[in-house]
Amino acid sequence: IKVYTIGIGSDTPKYQQTFMGFVMVPGVNRVLLERISAATGGKFFLAKNPRDMRAIYDIINALETSKQETPVFSRWYD
Q1: How many Å apart are CA 58 and CA 65, to the nearest integer?
Q2: Residue 8: helix, strand or coil by DSSP?
């Protein structure tokens, strides 16, 4: 099974101000996500905004083209 990993946000840490002072918000662990996807034959993506997410989903959809057929009607026997 291929695993496509998506990091959401930034891969660099940043500081955010709260009522307690500045707090470091860690970035995406890019190295770990790249290792996971590489080990399974997938790919790593970094999405920084909603447009990036849409583009990533379109790329994954183009990479994974498998057809599934489901029966519309089923026959039941007693």
Answers
A1: 11
A2: strand
Give dist(CA 32, CA 28) in Å, integer. 9
- Residue 43 near residue 57, CB atoms below 8 Å: no
Rounded to two decimals, what is the model's pTM? 0.69
- Taken in order 55, 57, 58, 63, the sign of the CA dihedral is positive
Per-residue pLDDT tens over the stretch 53-74: 999 999 999 988 777 777 777 7
Burial class from Cβ neighbours inside 10 Å (0-12, 13-18, 19+) for residue 77 reads exposed
What is the CA 69 to chain-centroid distance, rounded? 26
49 burial (CB, 10 Å; 0-12 / 13-18 / 19+) is exposed
Tell me the C-alpha to C-alpha distance, in Å, between residue 51 and each of 5, 9, 10, 21, 57.
17, 12, 15, 32, 10
